[in-house]
């Protein structure tokens, strides 16, 4: 039974023996179990490394058991995590197998993934295995909220180039500005479109994932190298050229007479936030935001807030981003 947690028979026997007493001394254990002291020491060290026992700091020969409902549960969860990582790795191996197998069939080129956990696992697998570049079309709804995940920030930290096109509706999500700023500072390249045609993720231009539905009926298609994947890559490139670069508030030009508050408001609104969302972010009333917007538009004689942004210099900014660790195809 304990072998599932990585314990040998001897380690399991010693552990159950220790559970019966609050504190045990190594010489006592050696006598009662008729084992050599060095053998007992090795077994205790193994149990301590697994987090099942702890050594008394004042008496190195004394060991006590950590409550099994805590220590064994932690060990079980650790093993479950290892199994999940192995499951993700097996999916990667399956992808490699399909790509290299002789005479690939059409069903191996386009795969349907069903179920929320399966779709989520495949997304995380693709993010963890990307090498040079990831390209994303992003739009609400977001099942886990509009916040960065460890995997998303992790791939930026290891030098992966990330290009994301957001629907302007994404900017009205809770914490949208904070999330985009966190991504931007990590090296993300972001652009905004009024609408994106679908959600999509492309990794290294060798595999793409397109969500079909969400919730309990979640499903997605995975596309491997073929004419369809080439078309999806071309679609992203076309949308990228049309999208407006997203820049942080600290990168807006300091137009003459433009206050810091005005610059921040202008940044939020030209990025696509609605008046209500901008007011919440700035801690202002909706009436105050609309009054300031009207003043900025009067100043520039602009017909729209986007036009006002460009007239005040926003259109001259460029998309932030870092040089990719390797060139994109």
Automatic annotation (TrEMBL):
<dbReference type="InterPro" id="IPR036390">
    <property type="entry name" value="WH_DNA-bd_sf"/>
</dbReference>
<dbReference type="InterPro" id="IPR016032">
    <property type="entry name" value="Sig_transdc_resp-reg_C-effctor"/>
</dbReference>
<feature type="domain" description="HTH luxR-type">
    <location>
        <begin position="255"/>
        <end position="312"/>
    </location>
</feature>
<dbReference type="InterPro" id="IPR000792">
    <property type="entry name" value="Tscrpt_reg_LuxR_C"/>
</dbReference>
<protein>
    <recommendedName>
        <fullName>HTH luxR-type domain-containing protein</fullName>
    </recommendedName>
</protein>
<dbReference type="Pfam" id="PF01978">
    <property type="entry name" value="TrmB"/>
</dbReference>
<dbReference type="InterPro" id="IPR036388">
    <property type="entry name" value="WH-like_DNA-bd_sf"/>
</dbReference>
<dbReference type="InterPro" id="IPR051797">
    <property type="entry name" value="TrmB-like"/>
</dbReference>
<dbReference type="InterPro" id="IPR002831">
    <property type="entry name" value="Tscrpt_reg_TrmB_N"/>
</dbReference>
């Amino acid at each position: 039974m304990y072998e599932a947690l990585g314990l040998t028979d001897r380690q399991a026997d010693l552990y159950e023996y220790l559970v019966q007493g609050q504190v045990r001394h190594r010489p006592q254990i050696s006598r009662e179990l008729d084992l050599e002291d060095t053998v007992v020491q090795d077994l205790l060290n193994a149990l301590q490394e697994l987090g099942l026992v702890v050594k008394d700091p004042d008496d190195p020969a004394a060991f006590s058991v950590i409550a099994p409902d805590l220590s064994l549960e932690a060990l079980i969860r650790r093993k479950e995590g290892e199994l999940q990582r192995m499951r993700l790795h097996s999916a990667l191996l399956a992808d490699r197998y399909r790509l290299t197998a002789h005479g690939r069939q059409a069903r191996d080129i386009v795969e349907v993934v069903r179920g929320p956990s399966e779709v989520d696992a495949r997304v995380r697998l693709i993010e963890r295995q990307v090498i040079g570049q990831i390209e994303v079309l992003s739009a609400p709804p977001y099942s886990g909220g509009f916040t960065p995940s460890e995997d998303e920030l992790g791939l930026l930290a290891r030098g992966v180039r990330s290009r994301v096109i957001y629907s302007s509706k994404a900017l009205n999500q809770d914490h949208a500005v904070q999330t985009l700023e966190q991504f931007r500072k990590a090296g993300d390249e972001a652009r905004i479109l009024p609408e994106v045609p679908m959600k999509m993720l492309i990794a290294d231009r060798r595999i793409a994932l397109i969500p079909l539905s969400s919730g309990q009926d979640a499903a997605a298609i995975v596309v491997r190298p073929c004419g369809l994947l080439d078309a999806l890559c071309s679609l992203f490139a076309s949308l990228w050229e049309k999208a407006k670069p997203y820049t942080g508030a600290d990168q807006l030009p300091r137009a003459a007479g433009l206050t810091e508050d005005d610059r921040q408001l202008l940044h939020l609104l030209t990025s696509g936030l609605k008046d209500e969302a901008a007011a919440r972010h700035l801690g202002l009333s909706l009436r105050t935001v609309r009054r300031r917007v009207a003043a900025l538009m009067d100043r520039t004689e602009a017909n729209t807030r986007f036009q006002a942004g460009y007239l005040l210099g926003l259109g001259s900014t460029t998309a932030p981003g870092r040089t990719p660790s390797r060139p994109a195809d």
